[in-house]
């Protein structure tokens, strides 16, 4: 598929978003010791934070797929992005506010220590999507919302990054994708070798370590993953549309890399696995399903697509639902059987779908009433000379 070809919807990739969000959910179920399962479950759940890396790579790919070669102003682009992410984000802050401020103001909980000391700053940073620029503020208010702070930065720079990548050949795009991966790998490897926080153990239980938080949450540290996704998107757009025969090996290699990371997770340094390692695997999976092989239709099921559309709300709300569900309905937070966990997952998905249908979609239409699909892409040769997404 090249830049002048009409671009169909990619429902299978929408469904993939649900599985990435679900991986994050089971990570928190395991991290909070809510589920006590077999070793394979523990290993799978323990790297669930990698689902956020998948979202960053996917974001770069989808934005390129949607906007490359199409003429749209900066105002239109940023308004559309704001309408897409902020309503559900604001709702998540609203529902998390009572518990967050109560604990920060009246209790002495180690996880909230930094928030307690900098509460005024947090009330500015979090609503304005700036919390990830201050590493120790990233997990405050709604802990998972740090990734939206990073995503907002990606949206800010995307129009300008796209102009640079738009003029690159396929070999150059492969070089850029490789370079982006090596940069993010270098960041996490350097941290692992230097250990600037002087930690005896580096894992997901560590809180308040400034440099570890920086490589995990700072927008500049996560930027290479987004650029990897963007480069992959352009490589896809310049490839023949009929190349679906490559889908199976790409997806298989991506899944094999994830399985290997799960199997060897105890031997892989935490910082490397958290921020760098699986980026190419995610890019391969997204690329493979974007080719729309026939066997990929299993992910085009309407129920899965709806769950994928609601995955953003699921991601934002699942921790709040988790605490309230297990403490309210079971009386304790830790160690529950499969029936309680399945009930929690069903409730979380139901709430996420309701928020998607009743808040996300109506707010998006209200905030961006003239929202339409971008016009068909211009001719590939013209596309190298136009200035999409940057006109006044």
Q: In total, how many domains does the architecture comprise?
A: 1
SSE pattern, N- to C-terminal: HHHHHHHHHHHHHHHHH
Approximately how much helix is present in the residues?
55-70%
Distance between the termini: 29 Å
Number of strands: 0
Principal-axis shape equals globular
**Computed structural class:** mainly alpha
- Count every helix, treating DSSP H or I runs of 4 or more residues as helices: 17
Low-confidence stretches: 373-388
* Oligomerization: single chain
Strand content: under 5%
Largest sheet data: none
Output the radius of gyration: 21 Å
Average pLDDT number: 89
Q: Can you describe what's shown?
A:
It contains 17 helices and no strands. The longest helix has 33 residues, at 74-106. It starts with 10 loop residues before the first helix and ends in a 9-residue tail after the last helix. It is mainly α. The protein has one domain (11-368). Helix 3 packs parallel to helix 7 (146-166).
Salient structural properties:
392 residues, mainly alpha, 17 helices, 67% helix, 0% strand
Summarize the structure.
By secondary structure, the chain is mostly helical. It contains 17 helices and no strands.
What's the helix and strand layout?
Elements: H1 11-31, H2 39-46, H3 50-67, H4 74-106, H5 113-117, H6 119-125, H7 146-166, H8 170-194, H9 210-217, H10 219-237, H11 247-263, H12 270-275, H13 279-290, H14 302-309, H15 311-329, H16 338-367, H17 380-383
Helix pairs in contact: 1-2, 1-3, 1-14, 1-15, 3-7, 3-10, 3-13, 4-7, 4-15, 4-16, 7-10, 8-10, 10-13, 11-13, 15-16
